[in-house]
Amino acid sequence: MDKLQLGEFVKSLDPEAEVKEGKQYIEVNIPPVKLHTLAKKLRESEETFFDYLFCLTGVDYGQDLGVVYHLASTKHMHIIVLKTRTSDREYPQFDSVSDIWKTADFHEREAFDLLGIRFNNHPDLRRLFLDSSWGYPLRKDYVDDINIVTK
User: Is 135 left (phi over 0), alpha (psi -120 to 50) or beta?
Assistant: First the structure.
């Protein structure tokens, strides 16, 4: 399956998905409420069989917070980038994909620890590196007067 066919297949799984060809991989933007459903379909579908989550990154876009998932199929040898974002900076949350890919467990904990992104149904969502006195140091609006960290 080439990039164009992969993009068309993703659109068949969820017509609301915004699919575009990125510089390296197909990029799929999906609303947070549809994230888990599409991720599960991408994992379980024989046509895609994305069995390997090799990177999960929390992102501060300024107004929005988001998560970027890099998925690979070791069977079909293709890669896709799945993106979702929310404008809720007070309580950003997405559904956990740790039930689909076990590697998401610590990646999601890291995004929670450093950006404050919460993952619904995560089996052990707690801080990984820092204690609660730190806040969320990878946010663009983070200010720490004690350690003299500013925007």
Answer: left
Instruction: Please state the pTM of the whole predicted model.
Output: 0.93
Task: For residue range 64-107, list pLDDT tens digits in order.
Answer: 999 999 999 999 999 999 999 999 999 999 999 999 999 999 99
- To which H or E segment does residue 21 belong? strand 18-21
The structure tokens listed for 56 are 């999960």
The pair phi, psi for residue 149, each rounded to 5°, is -105, 125
- 3-101 CATH choice from 3.30.460.80, 3.30.420.10, 3.40.50.300, 1.20.210.10: 3.30.460.80
How high is the pLDDT of residue 132? 86
